[in-house]
Amino acid sequence: xxxxxxxxxxxxxxxxLCYLVAAVGWLAVSTWNFGADMAAKANGTLREQPLAVxxxxxxxxxxxGTDSGGATLLETTSNDPQMILEDVxxxxxxxxxxxxxxxxxxxxxxxxxxxxxxxxxxxxxxxxPALQPDGSYLYTLPRTRLVAxxxxxxxxxxxxxxxxxxxxxxxxxxxxxxxxxxxxxxxxFCLALYPGLAAALLSWLGAAAALLPRKR
Amino acid sequence: xxxxSVLAALAALFLLCAFLTLKARLPSALAPLTALSAIxxxxxLCSVVDLLLPGICLLYAACLGLGIWALLxxxxxxxxxxxxxxxxxxxxxxxxxxxxxxxPGAVLFWLxxxxxxxxxxxxxxxxxxxxxxxLWATAAKLTKVDNRLYATAxxxxxxxxxxxxxxxxxxxxxxxxxxxxxxxxxLAYDALAFAVFAAVLGxxxxxxxxxxxxLAAILWCVPYFFTTYNHTIYLNTTYMTAYGDISAGLxxxxxxxxxLMLRRAPAAPRWAVLPVLALAANIKANTFVLAxxxxxxVxxxxxxxxxxxxxxxxxxxxxxxxxxxxxxxxxxxYLWNVRYVGALVAKNAAAGGAGETSLPLSGVVVNGIxxxxxxxxxxxxxxxxxxxxxxxxxxxxxFFTAAGRMSxxxxxxxxxxxxxxxxxxAALLAPSALLRARVLVLGALSLACFGGYNLMLxxxxxFIFKPSQAESLTxxxxxxxxxxxxxxxxxxxxxxxxxxxxxxxxxxxxxKKISALRPLAGQGxxxxxxxxxxxxxxxxxxxxxxxLGFSDGEFSDRKAQRSRAAYACGYLGxxxxxxxxxxxxxxxxxxxxxxxxxxxxxxxxGTADAEKNIYAGGGGTFGLPNLKPTEEGVxxxxxxxxxxxxxxxxVAESGCDYIYIDHLDDIFVESYAPLFADDLAAALAxxxxxxxxxxxxxxxxxxxEMAAS
Lengths: 216, 709
Known about the structure:
The complex is a heterodimer of chains A (216) and B (709).
Chain A: H1 2-9, H2 13-42, E1 49-51, E2 57-59, E3 61-66, E4 72-76, E5 82-85, E6 95-103, E7 110-113, E8 126-127, E9 130-131, E10 137-140, E11 149-152, E12 163-171, H3 185-215
Antiparallel strand pairs in A: 1-12, 2-5, 3-4, 4-12, 5-11, 6-10, 6-12, 7-8, 7-11, 9-10
Chain B: H1 2-22, H2 31-48, H3 52-71, H4 76-88, H5 97-101, H6 104-123, H7 130-146, H8 166-174, H9 182-201, H10 209-225, H11 245-264, H12 274-280, H13 288-304, H14 315-347, H15 361-372, H16 379-382, H17 385-400, H18 412-429, H19 433-464, H20 467-471, H21 476-504, H22 513-540, H23 556-569, E1 577-582, H24 588-597, E2 601-602, E3 607-609, E4 614-616, E5 621-623, H25 634-637, E6 639-641, H26 644-654, E7 658-663, H27 666-672, H28 681-684, E8 690-692, E9 699-700, H29 704-708
Parallel strand pairs in B: 1-2, 1-7, 5-6
Antiparallel strand pairs in B: 3-4, 7-8, 8-9
Helix pairs in contact in B: 1-2, 1-3, 1-6, 2-3, 2-8, 2-9, 2-12, 6-9, 7-8, 7-24, 8-9, 9-10, 9-11, 10-21, 10-22, 11-12, 11-13, 11-21, 12-13, 12-14, 13-14, 13-19, 17-19, 18-19, 18-21, 19-21, 21-22, 23-24
């Protein structure tokens, strides 16, 4: 008892507590996400799903054939080509992985999403790809309700075309359990900053409260 | 390997800081800024006499030697002396090297440096900004590759490399071991920023974490807060840019913050601020005045406020020190901007400088002020009266109205209100009359300097810039936000100092409960400011468009460009000279090629005539005169018309051994295909990037991998 009180009275107790709460909170949220995804897998809404180009509605993209390896060959016809999945609301989509080879200057690639039917695409609702070691591009979507997905596979310069050889587009690639628990760089930054800030705030509130009654 | 090389530089820096803390009694949170400034000062002096390589070797040896000596466990008697020395230095309560070295400010610095070293090594951001490729990153790369100052490098064009060497040399220190990499430049710049943050935290101790943490949060936000005013949909390059404007502002604030914290530790060496003032003058020529502002603030504070002793006591010493403060930036200015650049410009007289001023600086100041006071100036200046007054009106519009929104708070006037508010709060909460007076003087003086800085900008726009530049107030945001950043840091440092002092001796005596309210109120304000700035930052900057979450795709074009250049270099010898073709270029690709190919020289690839102000090269679109596009656009604006014989002569006279085809278009093929042995077939088929020049035409170089794919 004495040791515990002595521990709690150490100046570092509050920050240590806040970081502990943050770590536990992170574990809890990650476990919840993991559990939710396991449940979705069990009832079939979250499944690894390879898609072909033909599953998408194409805008400003022309199919020019298939290559020897079976990849669909596409060519852009404007500087804003799009591949659209109109309605994915019946399923859970966590990631979109694009296996593609480009010829030409690709420039910007991104994946737009909407969270309600009829909603406009917005630059606030888009994610950018992470280049994978195998050369594919992985888009990780936020854990919200998703209705439509619009893939902008490239943004050719004015008057130029980009040729693409799309092998497959994989929804919901398998994620190892550990993947749920590893924070992104930005999340790591937040986990470093915000618990400390919370501890500072709580400490301040405590000091202010200690001061107030005696003034009266 | 690349990571280890950077960690070695950090380790050397750590040893130097340990020496400064344990032997020179400089508080550990202030050591990084002094150390980095001293490093830059030493390397500048060495590079000016062209002894950069021996200089940096000596520097690393010194860091190693001094650091190990400082960290060696002292003998018993000496240990007591050191301990007392540390206590006398006003370092937080405890004795012992470990506690002296690891105060919150110092820990913040080292953790952030380590974190960013690992992060940048993992993510590898690249330089893509125009000025990065035309100047900042190129300067760093040249210095690293040659181990000599970039000003001595020979490039394919006469390069007026008169930019101050402070930041490139700082980058050089961090990448001395291992290979050149763009991200090492960013690490160097960020280390400087973190050193400034540590200085603002100053002597805050672990017990005062509820002040330290929100202060650190505010400091993190500062570079974003004063430069971003829009919800970004493009990558925000804060913390990963080689531009010098933010650094200039940070060092202005850092120098004054360092001084304020130095004075709090009675035995700490006052000279520690001098190298920082020298660094402030060594960042950009047009931010030299910021260094003078910093020096002035430090000099006045040191001279006017004797700190408890009678004013006349030690007056001579204080006057001497004030003079030293003002001298530090002036010496750098004289050494570099006057002597070294003067010699450089004389040597490259044929090259021609950019933006030669027709009106002398002193005349501009005198006549401009005469006009403002209602008088009539000399005729040469009267011609520019309208431009001058229009510039002032435009600057006023930018400052006062929402049209001049340039920060996360809005336009300039709101920022001034914020900054003065922080000064006022610091003055209000100051526990002693002396501290209050110092804060008030710093606030008033920095406000007056702000007025002076604006006047200087108005004079520049009125009399020095071209009319088109004055009309659009070119780069106004960048010039003015350097001052806001520095000014805000000075105010924040005052507040930080006041709250540290007020909180230093918490009293349990009930009569002094009121005095406990002061630090509490101040800490509450700092918390509020931190929360507000973080909230605003999160509103305007998405993580995936910032340093903490940028996508790999941001640099895919640049990576592809660089790997093409590297591949081509595999077929070139070190002495080869390359003629560059990139149709549709604005010059940026040419700068990138100069950068990527070095040490292989990329020719200017055109004709430059400074006297006639004709620059038909350095990137752009080559073509026959009759093929020039009629519609407005980049190819039309940067069109270089050459007939076939003219083009052949151009290539021959340039002495280039190869032609590098970065981007082809129909205009080039139609114009010059006959000059190429295969009529450009190989390039068009994507089988080669290089053609060998020769009297019989240009022959394609067989590039195996490209031909195979």
